[in-house]
What we know:
Shape: elongated
Order of helices and strands: HHEEHH
Structural class: mainly alpha
Strand order of the largest sheet: 1-2
Radius of gyration: 22 Å
Oligomer: single chain
Amino acid sequence: MIDIRYQVDRDGPIFRPLTVHAAVSELIDAVEHDVAAAGLVEWSTNLDASLRNPTPYYETQLTLEPTAGGWVAHDRGIVYGPWLEGVGSRNQTTRFKGYAAARRARQAIEKRIPQITAGALARAVRRLNGR
């Protein structure tokens, strides 16, 4: 009769619940930050390509901010932001239909999420592997 036994070493970061919980929390935060930051860059790039008479004020107000629900890219509530985007009430009564820079940025980022989040995921795996 052949008897085969395996011994598993239960030491290391993956076997410590607090370490795993912290790593997953950091991963979620990093993924949210990376996606929002990429969205902010894409939004700014779309505006640069679209604005006919750019003034730097609006573009300098684009920012990335942590919130209770994750990271958010926004324009600090600039009153004419919805008009530039094309979702304001004035867009329905004027010829200007907006640039849709934020919408186009979101659509572009949604397609690139796996590439954007790969770095954060690799860092989390390295941490859980004890490296």
